[in-house]
Design goal:
The complex is a heterodimer of chains A (317) and B (427). Chain A is mainly alpha-helical and 317 residues long. Helices cover 73% and strands 1% of the residues of chain A. Chain A has 14 helices and 2 strands, in the order H-H-E-E-H-H-H-H-H-H-H-H-H-H-H-H. In chain A, a hairpin with a 7-residue loop joins strand 1 and strand 2. In chain A, helix 13 runs antiparallel to helix 14. Chain B is 43% helix and 14% strand. Chain B is built from 16 helices and 12 strands. At the A-B interface, loops of A face helix 3, helix 9, helix 15 and helix 16 of B.
């Protein structure tokens, strides 16, 4: 959208015989920019500006009150000697590595179930999407904490089957499964995208495969997976980036401390604590920029490897 | 007059209006108001609903006596309170008057965020002269103590009686205290824990240091104790961790932000004596009692009166006079004492203390502070910059210790590394 006005302007100079129409287009562009202005101003003032100043602050010692002191790369180098930082990296990575694939698998499985023609599918689709509408909210983290607490429904349900784990919230080795279950349960957004992708796959492919005697497993790996691969790629990318940014639910469940025993000390939570509890804004800014760089690199790797497994329709291969 | 509905709206709008006030700074409003055109100051505090209700009454009383000033109230819990102040200070929008904690006085005072209260009119004649320095840094007064509190061990006599355990008389060594905790755990078959791990509480450590004649911090803002001192301290309860003598860290985490003692999970708790009202409310117990903390030196209990909270004003307030009048009222007025009783601690100002009638559990708290009078030492100076952070990491690392994630040596190393790093940052 933002590109089209530039293109139009270029066409004005190269094709002079259409002055009236291009003047019209220029006016359109101006109107377009005018409508865009509120967003653009907000984007520059509230996103680009703070990002640039945080880049500067990441090279300083800044405690919110005194003017920032330039210390070069010190923040970045001390990061790697900070045990809590390394712990937060470990916690976040295990969440991304285990949580994201599980969430996508759940989303794809439900999308395939909802794709079949059955009575009342509309209702089921809404019902399965509902958790992600409320999933990111504070209230659901509170509910989750109560569900997995001492003698909460989960504890009681499991002890009915003779499994006595106690409360998950206070047990350092159970908090990660709990956090992963919370994200898996919010599969709605990727599920809807999968569903749209599944509807795009021509039915005659499946028909032809059936005639050739292919079973459901064969159909999934030879038709569904390759045809859906661009959508899978998109979801994988988005969900991975989201997973790196997990904050609110961890903050609520651990009372903003990242406990028990640092087991919910996610990257962004530690960043927040460094900035707003310890007044180490420079350090926190360095952490933020490191996250941006790492997520950028991971995205790049995803794009590079995608060539070998993502098939776009119309590709020669 | 303010009614309940007005007040709630005020509380809800508190933050919003603070932002608006900060935003429309330019046309300087009048320094003083009049009854027909009052000035409005913002006041913020931490605490629970009980304190909110008492504060609401105190504000209403202040407004009826000072028709030219309106007070906007706003409150949160303790942990969130400091994160919010940090953000406001960064934006230059601290509320006019704030309830403050000794742990954070240097962080804000030394960085010119708080008003020097020596420049405004606040009456401190009725204050014990040894208490005022706790609100002062380098000769400037940044905070006026509202009240004092002292450390104590709480217990529930009914619970001890049901287990057939004699009530402690408060003259105990650490060994005897440990044996007591173990006895509770053993006799209750684990149904009731002895207490939380007291070595995880910074102030207990500080008191123990004082019992051994060590100051926690030196005058130039360095640590006054060695890593070996800290190891010795954390080893005090090494044999008790993981037994019913000490509340398991899993339970502590589950119950947070409520305390195990308030949740009837443990028989004792060592903390400040002004927690009485909160514990009574949380636990529903009929009666709770207070005894001094253990000491291996019978003549030196290491105890002191600490300002339980201070009143401070923002350095950027536009209504210095109104802020000073409100602070003066909150710390000196006898009727305010009557409203808060001992829920803020024992009133620091003699005028306020004498004007308050203490009955029932409030009397217990006052009597406790009287009973330890002969052991009291000078109040500590405001701790070093960043002390709040050190206190938090002390608690966190002891919690790791109870989870069995680190050894005592590893825990001491970790805390010292964080402390030295922080002191270096702020020097």
């Amino acid at each position: 959208m933002t590109q089209s006005p530039t293109l139009n302007r270029r066409s004005t100079s190269s094709t002079p015989p259409l002055p009236r129409k291009s003047r019209q287009r220029g006016a359109d562009a101006r109107a377009g920019y005018t409508f865009l202005l509120p967003w653009l101003l907000g984007f520059i003032a509230l996103t680009v500006g703070p990002m640039i100043s945080s880049l500067y602050l990441s090279f300083t010692n800044y405690n919110l009150f005194d003017p920032p002191k330039w210390i070069g790369l010190d923040n970045y180098t001390t990061l790697f000697q900070d045990e809590r930082f390394l712990q937060s990296v470990g916690v976040t990575l295990s969440y991304v590595v285990f949580g994201t694939p599980l969430k996508l698998a759940a989303a794809l499985a439900v999308a395939m179930l909802l794709n079949s023609k059955r009575k009342g599918q509309g209702f089921y689709r809404s019902a399965f999407y509902a958790p992600s509408l409320i999933g990111a909210s504070v209230s659901i983290a509170i509910v989750w904490k109560a569900m997995f607490g001492d003698s909460g429904p989960v504890d009681q349900g499991l002890s009915f089957f003779g499994i006595n784990l106690g409360g998950w919230v206070g047990n350092p080795s159970m908090t990660m499964p709990m956090m992963i279950l919370l994200t898996v349960w919010q599969f709605g957004a990727p599920m809807v995208i999968f569903l749209a992708g599944l509807k795009q796959i021509p039915a005659d492919l499946y028909e032809a495969a059936s005639m050739d005697g292919a079973g459901p497993v064969r159909k999934f790996f030879n038709i569904t997976w390759p045809m859906l691969s661009p959508v899978i790629f998109f979801n994988l990318l988005m969900e991975t980036i989201h997973a790196f940014q997990i904050f609110a639910s961890a903050y609520i469940i651990s009372n903003g401390e990242g406990g028990p025993a640092g087991s919910t000390l996610f990257y962004t939570l530690y960043l927040y604590l460094r900035g707003f509890s310890d007044f180490r804004m420079g350090y926190a800014s360095a952490m933020a920029w490191l996250l941006v760089i790492v997520v950028g690199i991971i995205t790049l790797i995803f794009f590079k490897t995608s060539k070998s497994w993502v098939h776009y329709s119309g590709d020669a291969k | 007059m303010i009614n309940r509905r007005n007040f709630l709206t005020t509380v809800a709008l508190g933050t919003a209006s603070a932002a608006v006030l900060a935003a429309c700074g330019q046309p300087a409003p009048a320094q003083t108001g009049s009854a027909s055109n009052p000035v409005t100051i913002n006041y913020t505090w931490w605490g629970n609903d009980d304190r909110a209700e008492r504060t609401r009454k105190a504000i209403a009383l202040f407004e009826s006596k000072n028709p030219d000033i309106k007070v906007n109230g706003n409150f949160t819990d303790f942990a969130g309170y400091w994160q919010k102040r940090a953000t406001e200070a960064a934006g230059g929008g601290l509320p006019d008057v704030m309830q403050w904690d000794l742990s954070y006085l240097r962080d804000y005072g030394q960085r010119n965020q708080l008003l020097d209260l020596g420049t405004v009119k606040i009456n401190t004649d009725a204050f014990d002269k040894s208490l005022l320095p706790s609100g002062q840094i380098r000769g400037k007064t940044y905070g006026i103590p509202t009240s004092t509190n002292a450390f104590a061990v709480y217990y529930d006599p009914a619970k001890l009686a049901s287990l057939g355990i004699a009530e402690p008389d408060g003259t105990w060594t650490y060994k005897e205290y440990n044996a007591f905790l173990a006895e509770v755990g053993a006799k209750s078959n684990g149904a009731l824990f002895g207490g939380t791990d007291y070595t995880g509480i910074w102030w207990m450590f500080n008191i123990w240091l004082r019992q051994n004649n060590i100051e926690a911090f030196t005058e130039d803002g360095k640590l006054g104790f060695s890593k070996d001192d800290l190891k010795k301290w954390w080893n005090q309860t090494a044999a008790l961790r993981g037994t019913p003598a000490i509340v398991s860290e899993e339970r502590v985490t589950q119950l947070a932000p409520k305390s195990p003692f308030g949740s009837n999970v443990s028989a004792t708790e060592s903390t400040w004596d002004n927690f009485m009202a909160a514990y009574l409310g949380d636990s529903g117990a009929k009666e709770l009692k207070l005894v001094p903390v253990p000491s291996d030196d019978k003549d030196n209990l290491g105890l002191f009166l600490k300002p339980s909270m201070l009143m401070v004003a923002s350095a950027k307030t536009k209504y210095k006079d109104a802020a000073a009048r409100f602070i003066d009222f909150m710390v000196n007025d006898p009727e305010v004492g009557q409203i808060f009783k001992t829920s803020r601690g024992v009133p620091a100002s003699k005028t306020q203390r004498d004007g308050t009638t203490f009955e029932g559990t409030d009397k217990l708290v006052v009597d406790y502070e009287k009973s330890i009078e002969k052991y009291l030492k000078d109040a500590p100076e405001p701790p070093i910059v960043g002390f709040g952070t050190l206190e938090t990491s002390f608690k966190r690392i002891s919690s790791d210790l109870n989870f069995g994630k680190v050894t005592v040596d590893g825990a001491a190393d970790a805390w010292f590394k964080e402390a030295e790093d922080l002191i270096k940052q702020n020097s």
